[in-house]
Amino acid sequence: MKFQWITKKQIWIIALILLVVALLIDLNTRLSTLQFLTDQKSTLESDVNNLQATLQMVSEKVDYANSDTAVEEWARQQGMMMKEGDHVIIPLPVNEPTIEPTFIPTVQPTQVENWLVWQKLIFD
């Protein structure tokens, strides 16, 4: 069997091929990481937009709650308060006679012999 020596040229070619493969693997890893980060960025942008809309809505509610109209509305509707010169009318419940429930008697079932039940089932 003949033993072949590897020449310098073959060593450089093998090293160059290994380098190219390593660079392609690194490029693939970087591209997949870029895709993952781009997806995360778009998800976070939509979350930020939703949170900004929520903040806008809540700040509008807080501004309304701190306004004089909200305080006056609460005072008149829930706080049962009045302004000077207002005449508050409180409706009272009407005293109607309560309806007495009528007694409905319950019907008691009658006991029937078993042989009569079987006779009805078979012959009727």
Describe the fold and architecture.
With 124 residues, this protein is mainly α. The chain is built from 3 helices and no strands. It is flat and about 120 Å long.
Essential attributes:
mainly alpha
Residues in helix, %: 55-70%
Unreliable parts: none
Proportion of residues in extended strands: under 5%
Helices, by number, come to 3
Task: Report the order of strands and helices.
Answer: HHH
Mean pLDDT, as a whole number? 89
Structural class comes to: mainly alpha
Using the CA coordinates, give the radius of gyration.
Answer: 45 Å
Could you tell me how far the N terminus lies from the C terminus, measured between alpha carbons in angstroms? 107 Å
- For the secondary structure, the number of strands is 0
Major sheet attributes: none
Gross geometry: flat
Short description:
This protein has 124 residues and is mainly alpha-helical. It has helices spanning 8-65, 68-77, 114-123.
